[in-house]
Amino acid sequence: MDRKKLVLLLGALIIALGTALAARSLFSGAAAPQAEAAAPEPTGPKVLVANRGLAAGTIITADAMGFQQWPEELVQDAYFIEGESDLESLIGTVVRFPITAGQPVTFGSLVSPGDRGFLAAALGPGMRAVTVPVSERTGVAGFIFPGDRVDLMLTQTVEGVGRPLKAAETVLRNLRVLATDQTTEQVTNEQGKTVVRDFNTVTLEVTPQLAEKIAVAQTIGTLSLVLRSIADNQAELERAIASGEVKIPEDATPEEEERILRTAMAKPVSQATSFQTGGDVSRFERKTLPEDEEAAQRRRAEEELKRQLEQQRALVAARNSGRMDGGAGPIVRVIRGGTAREVEVDGVGNKASAGASNLLKTTARGVGAVGDTVPAATATLIK
After folding, report:
1. In a shared domain, residues 76 and 163
2. What pTM was computed for the model?
């Protein structure tokens, strides 16, 4: 073989071998897993953070907050540190400023019962606090605690002519209880069980218009509280979303959606209230409103006039059947207030009609000038 060809063949083999080794090295390097740096675990103490978004005015419960590991260099003096703070002592406090989920809770963001401005901090934006008196019977025997939701029912007796009407009406629904008497938290015994106690007043969170409505309702009859189930709010929220009353924008973030739903669930309701009357409970009670004195007078006057009209018609028919020319003149019925009386005008035949007409005009001007509650007197030509 020619030496030149042998050298070229050897060179080609060397180049092919080098290319193969380079390709193998390239593919094996790409397939090798690359180690990722693991996030360093926080080594600092555990601080108190919000388990969910807490709006201003939220009453703290046991599931609202929890301790979480926090970097030591980021810990501030205003944080609640595990081992140095008692979580149980914070239950019943109120959020002064909004706290996002996962954000540390600070001393200044909570207001304790008895602190200045506590009740004002517990109120939502645009809401008011109103206090209503209750008893053991109207206050669900003490089984109402701050943070519960209640309906407000008005019981009254409507007086009038005849048997009075007894009625009960649910005037407001879904009201948040802020306090019972002067207590804004649940009272527990040494075993940690909730203590049921009597109270004389309940403070509710309402809008300014509903506060006016409650003030008027207290002057009408007796107010009673009706405790709501926790599941009711979720059911009504689903109904409101299905009917379009609550609309969530398509581009809303999870935080905005949660805020919209939370606001809708906390909204007091004054529409679509229900009522029951005595007739719905007992067949021996009224079902409709009784008449007032003026309406009863009008009804009695109308019945009396109708009765007298029937009598006059019968009398006129009897006279006409036996009357001859030159007999009695026409009969005029004069009505004044609730009284009707007949006047027989003297005359013969058709000549008496003119006198009856003059009598009608004179009577209509003369009677009823005193100002009767019933329409002014009228005169009608019977025959």
Report:
1. no
2. 0.57
